[in-house]
Design brief:
This protein has about 90 residues and is α+β, with helices and mostly antiparallel strands. Helix content is about 25%, strand content about 40%. The chain has one domain (about 5-90). The protein has helices at about 20-30, 80-90; strands at about 10-15, 30-35, 40, 45, 50-55, 60-65, 70-75. A hairpin with a 2-residue loop joins strand 5 and strand 6 (about 60-65). This is DUF1894 domain-containing protein.
Length: about 90
């Protein structure tokens, strides 16, 4: 399993509540999908319940991420066209 630190990312929001994360992704993104905990982005496992928000803005992927012992974050992975296509195909 990959580590989030192995992927170039930007922190857009930290120390947020689940509702703040949801609102942020909905506000900032052109498309929003919800996945279950266990979904993987470039091999990195997303933790959480049945509704983890993942958004698409241009070629960037914006999503809620839980860092153990640190809390909830919103991360942006730039130039993530591979992951964008994967989530679009999975959610059809």
């Amino acid at each position: 399993m990959a580590c989030i630190n192995d992927i170039p990312y930007e922190i857009l929001l930290k120390g947020a509540t689940p509702q703040q994360c949801e609102d942020f992704v909905k506000k900032e993104c052109d498309e929003v999908y919800h996945v279950k905990g266990g979904y993987k982005i470039r091999g990195v496992l997303l933790r959480g319940g049945d509704s983890i928000p993942i958004g698409i803005k241009g070629n960037d992927l914006i999503f809620q991420f839980i860092k153990p012992c640190s809390g909830l974050f919103i991360l942006r992975i730039p130039d993530a066209q591979d992951e964008i296509e994967k989530i679009r195909n999975k959610m059809k």
